[in-house]
Amino acid sequence: MKYVELSRKENFDSWDTMDLAELHQLQTCEDFNEYRIYQSKNVKIGLIILESYERTPFRLMKNSFKLVSLSGGEAITRFSDGRISLMMFEKGECVSQNVVIPPMINDLQNIGDNLLVMALIEYKNTLSQDSGLYPSLQMETPVLSGI
């Protein structure tokens, strides 16, 4: 996976006005019910399927999670602190996100020409061991190699 920070914290200059308006009017939406395929006491598993240039609305994420690329593709994510990041996935690559206090608010947009399919694994009732103020991304090796 390749990860590029396109906009730094507190820099909203490159943001689209509609995205900013949505962020400012955000109704706290914590669940991914429309994506969820399994839930237990400790974990939620969801499937995010985005057509080319389709995006998820902004979401409040309280728990650490893992995003696994089932298709490969390119996506951008916008964070409520102003950061915008580009992620380029090969099939099977994943990224872990440690969510620290305060919770993280972000969206996800497919910017590629093909369908983007991602598995979301949210670890409920877990707090980040990270002592930093911001969420930290950890890239991982492919989990679906040979499929």
Provide the fold topology:
Elements: E1 2-7, H1 17-24, E2 36-39, E3 43-50, E4 59-61, E5 65-69, E6 73-78, E7 84-89, E8 94-98, E9 104-106, E10 109-110, E11 116-123, E12 136-140
Antiparallel strand pairs: 1-7, 2-3, 3-11, 4-9, 5-8, 5-11, 6-7, 6-10, 8-12
Structure commentary:
By secondary structure, this protein is mainly beta. The chain has a single domain (2-140), classed as Jelly Rolls, CATH 2.60.120.10. The protein contains 1 helix and 12 strands. A 6-stranded antiparallel β-sheet has the order 2-3-11-5-8-12, with no helix packed on it. Strand 2 and strand 3 (43-50) form a beta hairpin. 21% of the residues are buried. Residues 127-137 have low confidence and may be disordered.
Could you write a compact summary of the structure shown?
The protein has 147 residues and is mostly beta strands. The chain has one helix at residues 17-24; strands at residues 2-7, 36-39, 43-50, 59-61, 65-69, 73-78, 84-89, 94-98, 104-106, 109-110, 116-123, 136-140.
Instruction: Report the CATH architecture.
Output: Sandwich
The N- and C-terminal alpha carbons lie at a distance of 17 Å
Order of helices and strands: EHEEEEEEEEEEE
CATH classification, class level: Mainly Beta
Write out the CATH superfamily name. Jelly Rolls
Mean pLDDT: 80
Radius of gyration: 15 Å
Helix content: under 10%
Number of beta-strand segments: 12
CATH topology descriptor: Jelly Rolls
Supply the helix-strand structural class.
Answer: mainly beta
